[in-house]
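Please check the following.

. . .
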Amino acid sequence: MSDASAALAALGDEVIACRACPRLVAWREDVAANPRRSFAGEVYWGRPIPGFGDARPWLVIVGLAPAAHGANRTGRVFTGDRSGDFLFAALHRAGLATMPTSTRADDGLELRGCRVTAAVRCAPPANRPTPDESARCLPYLRRELDLCARAPVVLALGALAWQATLRALDPPRPWPRFGHAAEAAVAGRTMIASYHPSQQNTFTGRLTPDMLDAVLDRCHALADVGASGP
């Protein structure tokens, strides 16, 4: 195991063991103890979710938080729900994922040059962590980004992930505004934004596959520019 892999694995172990937010601990464990009917009989993960992917990525993707019956069930970020279906299909089209689906933690999926993580590591009620919960989780995101310091591009999925990533990187204010395909030079990297691949956005056409593909194409281009210099 490389030094980078070992450091990320150690951080992941810390994340998994975290019980800092009583409301989130109670919620994630209650959901795990009472599976949705469609997942009856499955053993839920029911713990915080570490990042997943390449230990030396050129692209880090930051989402908001695990889904109650997605990552909270499967134990892997964006895995086992429709948001993940949409995201990993796009990553596969972009050559960043070895498979177009992400159904469970042991399904054999690998990411190439890409790492996916979240601003908040426990599934929150109504998909909304409180400001205090987000603040307690922020050091994990900051450390993960530090361990992926060679990644020239960070993609934030949704406005809350955009704000959390800015807090983690701590650039001078005023901070750049969120908007789909927005870009900003932050702390020696380029941040780029996309609408979150939630059903609310994908089912209504607010975020289409072509839109996410275009953002990932832009991430590729930005990384190439960063590697070759001006």
Q: What stands out?
A: Strands lie at 52-53, 59-63, 114-118, 153-157, 183-186, 189-194. The CA atoms of residues 67 and 127 lie 7 Å apart. The first strand starts at residue 52 and ends at 53. The chain is about 40% helix and 10% strand.
